[in-house]
Design brief:
- With 85 residues, this protein is mostly helical.
- The protein has one domain (2-84).
- Helices cover 84% and strands 0% of the residues.
- The protein contains three helices and no strands.
- Helix 1 runs antiparallel to helix 2, helix 1 packs parallel to helix 3 and helix 2 (35-57) runs antiparallel to helix 3.
């Protein structure tokens, strides 16, 4: 049972990390006075989410793996959008 609990905890941590990164991206104001600090915060959130997703993928169920890989794709889109600005 602990193994399944670890799977769920890892998935939930990755999910929360991805949500926090998405929220940081949504709050990014390109022409805002504190854009630099917002961008730094976004970078930290994205890096944290990637790490949590990577850890969760090691023990994920197939259904969790599909969702985690989608989070990775969504995060990559955020990185690409920010780099294009």
């Amino acid at each position: 049972m602990p193994y399944n609990k670890n799977k769920q905890q890892g998935f939930q941590a990755a999910q929360q990390g991805a949500i926090q990164a998405f929220d940081a991206f949504d709050q990014l104001v390109k022409d805002g006075a504190d854009y630099g600090s917002q961008l730094k915060h976004l970078k930290e959130e994205v890096n944290e989410a990637y790490a949590q997703i990577s850890n969760a993928l090691e023990v994920a169920t197939e259904a969790q793996r599909i969702q985690l890989e989608q989070y990775q794709k969504d995060l990559q889109e955020i990185v690409q959008q920010v780099n294009e600005e």
